[in-house]
Amino acid sequence: MVEIYHNSSLVAHFLQDKKQYLIEYQNFNLQNSITLSLPNTKRLYLYEYRFPPFLESFLPEGYLYEIFKNLLSKEYGRVDDYLIFSLLAPSIESRVAFKSDLSEGVEFPLFSVEDVINNDSNDFFNRLVETFLKKNAISGVQPKSVALLQDKEQLQTKEYIVKTWGEEYPDLARNEYFCMQVAKKAGLESANVTLSKRNRFLIVEKFTLKASGEFYGFEEICSLMDKNRDSKYSGSYEQIAKIIYSYTTNKKESLLAFYKSVVINYLVKNGDAHLKNFGLLFDDDFKQIFYSPVYDIVNSVVYIHKDKPALMLNGKKVWWNKETLVKFGQKSCMLSLKEAEVAFQTCVDALKWGIEELKEYTKQNPDFKIGKMMQESWEESLKTHVLNNETTKELADELTRAWADY
After folding, report:
1. Class of residue 148 by CB neighbours under 10 A (exposed 0-12, middle 13-18, buried 19+)
2. Is residue 279 situated within a structural domain?
3. Are 370 and 177 in contact (CB under 8 A)?
4. Residue 275: domain span
5. 311 contacts: CB under 8 Å, gap ≥ 6
6. CA nearest neighbour of 190 among 350, 378, 380
């Protein structure tokens, strides 16, 4: 059994019973709700044949899942989501805390941010994974690890996510870094990211910890839509806008930020902006609920040349043009025509800035070979104000030729 605490008070039990999962509230007070999608308004939440979406957001996928699978199969003779969650739960740092009858909290050694920046080798990454294995309650398929790092400038110790990449997605760290810089240039609040010395790691500061030492609550849109990770590509950006409208307390501001993040994802050619890559933050008492900083933005077409947007917009998964995106801002994001056009132009200007940054960087760093491909795809976005169906094939063929040369 896993116990769930809020402000040191036991509020719920999480149990597995054969093929069903139960979250049973023990302390009836709305402020003791676990999260937005699990309000403390009824005693029992029952999930048959599927893991509770909010708790599933803490489960590792891909690279990390395989590590846990090998470890637990040897120790327990089996592996399942409940077992993994039970082992990770006591080390999760969030607005709510967890205790498990299978695992206790672990004392973790500290590294400095500088340690990670200056030691970006495969051996050091493996060391991070091994050291912080029971802290790796993070989703996503690429190689990554949570790490407790000391920041000398801020005189703080906090959780970071250290990402690297394999042969399938070369130079993913630099790819994401430049995409995130474009988002930041467009005025979007974004997760703070730093490249390591040799560009093997992207060091991402988690944004849920307040300066006061308290935590914001955070929930992914996938969970708020009561969907599990296998449905993260099922849905639309219009549906996300409705979720944001229904939950947030600063609706106009949050929807504007969401609109700009959608535009940026289209402009930089991120075909992986799925339901788990958008989220909401909220204060401990739920009085302030707002759109979270953006995260996990990459140019995916340099790896998957005919990639499409992850979710539907206007009923289709295509790279829509400016006209369609501006209409989306008006219809779904509470924006006037002028507001939508101004926000769109802000994103275009950020992309122009990003292209110049890429040009200069690739001149000085010729080893960054996908940088030229990113630049070409961004220039194509500029020409067409987000690609339409007619130009998508043309770009895909051009990128295929560039990839063959690479």
Report:
1. middle
2. yes
3. no
4. 217-405
5. 233, 235, 236, 237, 240, 273, 274, 275, 317
6. 350
Residue 213 CA to its chain's centroid (Å):
22
At residue 99, φ and ψ (nearest 5 deg) are -125, 145
Which residues does residue 22 pair with via DSSP β-bridges, in sequence order?
15, 46
* CA atoms in the 13 A half-sphere facing the CB of 141: 9
78 falls within a domain: no
Query: What CATH number is associated with residue 390?
Result: 1.10.1070.20
Note whether residue 350 is domain-resident.
Answer: yes
The tally of domains found in the chain comes to 1
Query: What DSSP state is assigned to residue 315?
Result: T
Looking at the predicted structure, is the pLDDT value of residue 405 above 70? Answer: no
CA distance 252 to 292: 14
- For the segment 154-190, what is each residue's pLDDT rounded down to a tens digit? 667 899 999 999 888 999 999 999 999 999 999 999 9
**β-pairing verdict for 144-151 and 111-112:** parallel
pLDDT digits (tens, 9 = 90+) for 85-108: 999 999 999 999 999 988 776 789
Residue pLDDT, tens place only, 120-145:
999 999 999 999 998 998 888 889 99
CA distance 161 to 171: 17
Average pLDDT, the chain: 92
DSSP 207: S
Pairing of strands 156-163, 202-205: antiparallel
Distances from the Cα of 153 to the Cα of 114, 115, 156, angstroms: 11, 14, 8
Say if residue 404's pLDDT is above 80: no
Give the pLDDT mean for 30-34: 93
Q: How far apart are CA 194 and CA 162, in angstroms?
A: 10
Is the pLDDT at 202 greater than 90? The verdict is: yes
The DSSP annotation for 129-147 comes to HHHTGGG-----SSSEEEE
> Is 232 exposed, middle or buried (CB count within 10 Å of its CB: 0-12, 13-18, 19+)?
buried
pLDDT at 139: 87
Residue 201 resides in a domain: no
